[in-house]
Amino acid sequence: VSREAEIVLRADKLFLPGVGTAQAAMDQLRERELIDLIKACTQPVLGICLGMQLLGRRSEETRGVDLLNIIEQDVPKMTDFGLPLPHMGWNRVYPQAGNRLFQGIEDGAYFYFVHSYAMPVNPWTIAQCNYGEPFTAAVQKDNFFGVQFHPERSGAAGAQLLKNFLEM
């Protein structure tokens, strides 16, 4: 964990975790002067849960929160469709064939989710999930990857995904 530009830029890989609200996370990134630094990264970056949402353009949380705008997609609150929110628990993920982040992971493998906001399916979607309607479970644009689920809580499939990321 660092906000020193030379340390961050020297790292082989970067994780963008996220717990809490988009507003609080963006405030922390702004206070620590990390926004431009993150956008300048050329090494693989993996956003996890809220960290993936932060890659988007704008969150519908509270009255709206401007995000990093790496992925040009807004992040709306999920529609409940009679299902409980937050979306919490195990759900199947369907990746695009051949994506290296999901190499060695079965199509329809279960991953663990905890979220109420989700990026709609978009041109950068590399995996989908369905909770009343399809949403982006994983995204990639250039060296930036994001997963809406928690790989660290997702058993063998999550461990394989993290291994794939670390081997990039």
TrEMBL record:
Pathway: Amino-acid biosynthesis; L-histidine biosynthesis; L-histidine from 5-phospho-alpha-D-ribose 1-diphosphate: step 5/9. InterPro entries: Class_I_gatase-like, GATASE, Imidazole-glycPsynth_HisH. It comes from the Bacteria. It holds the Pfam family GATase. This is Imidazole glycerol phosphate synthase subunit HisH. It is found in: Cytoplasm. IGPS catalyzes the conversion of PRFAR and glutamine to IGP, AICAR and glutamate. The HisH subunit catalyzes the hydrolysis of glutamine to glutamate and ammonia as part of the synthesis of IGP and AICAR. The resulting ammonia molecule is channeled to the active site of HisF. The keyword Cytoplasm applies. PROSITE patterns: GATASE_TYPE_1 (PS51273). Residues 15-166 form the Glutamine amidotransferase domain. GO terms for molecular function: glutaminase activity; imidazoleglycerol-phosphate synthase activity; lyase activity. Its EC number is 3.5.1.2, 4.3.2.10.
